Fold:
Amino acid sequence: MEMIPRLRVAVISDLHAFASPVSYQTPSYLDMSQTDKNQYNDPMLGLKSLIDRNQISADILLCAGDIGDKAIPAATSFGWDKVNEIKGWLGASDIIATAGNHDVDSRYKYNDYDAKGMLQSLTPAFPGLTTDQCDRFWSRNFAILEGEYWRIVTLNSAAYHGAGGEQASEYLHGRVSNHTVAHLKKELEEKTVAKPLNILLCHHHPIRNNRIEERDYSEMAGGDGLVNELGSGELGQWIIIHGHKHYPRITYATGGSTSPIIFSAGSFCAQLYPELGPKARNQFYLIDFPIDQFGRLECSVAGKVNSWDWISMRGWQKASRESGIPAEAGFGYRCAHQHLVNSIVKYLTGLQEPYSDWSQLVEWKAEIDFLTPDDKEVLIKNLQEKGVQVLFDDDGVPVQVKVKK
Structure:
């Protein structure tokens, strides 16, 4: 029997590359004119060091948009070159990207009123697919790339930016039209082979994301309809990966058990807004999808995430427990918390020793590794309320549990 492979995906978003000097606050740590670069003040050199040091590799690199800042042509081209460098460092076979609101020249008119012209002139072709697929991305606002066991859709949620007249403020939010959703649904329905893993990449968040204390006005218009179609269960099981908010979080869309997973990627290296400072970090991700385990896990689509934080003058570090998405995270296991807590307590009290390594607990119940960070925090809190002590390492990763006998 043929072994079903795993898929390893690296995720970056919101580089906001720029060229100094600028007349406003520095938008990013990725300054194309900086000359004194080293791995502690330049996120690209730091990432190269991290990849080499940890022998990190990926099958595919996903980039969720805002490659340059404010659609400056030279910065956008520079950022795209850097994305392609990362692909090479990771040994990835493909880049799949999408357009962000800062990639489309909707306000500054550098490109003679051709809002998407700069992106269409990039080399290699943007968003990183074959010529035919790139043409479909620009004409249909989405393109599909398929492997034997997975399917990735890249959606252009900035497709209508640059419209004039009454639509001049379109740049303030994303959009997916009913027409685009209908065409995407039709193409997916025409696919005769179902895939166990389905990923949709976009820039704007398809559902409101206002967990931080700010008014959320920039979500994707029409996003509810898109999420409803993908969450119907008729088009496979989906994870949506997006950028734009600069706020890292993994959650589930509203709906039933087949609702999509929502992976909100933090910014790779943009300077974060003050209100985000205590609650988010710049991050880089490696997601491992164990497609070969989907059949035995109590999950439809599941993955494990390794996350790193960019800290200026310190370089890339393992993410902390407070970083938004911690150093080791997961998604896909939608459990009944109280039942899981009671099962864990029963298991621990049945052991001869009063303590257990967290890895031993995961070996007993593999799905624990596929709880979202929020769900894992709830689990730990509930365990502690039951008298179970949870110990963490320096990175905030649980390493041991101890129960009173």
Remarks:
- The radius of gyration is 21 Å.
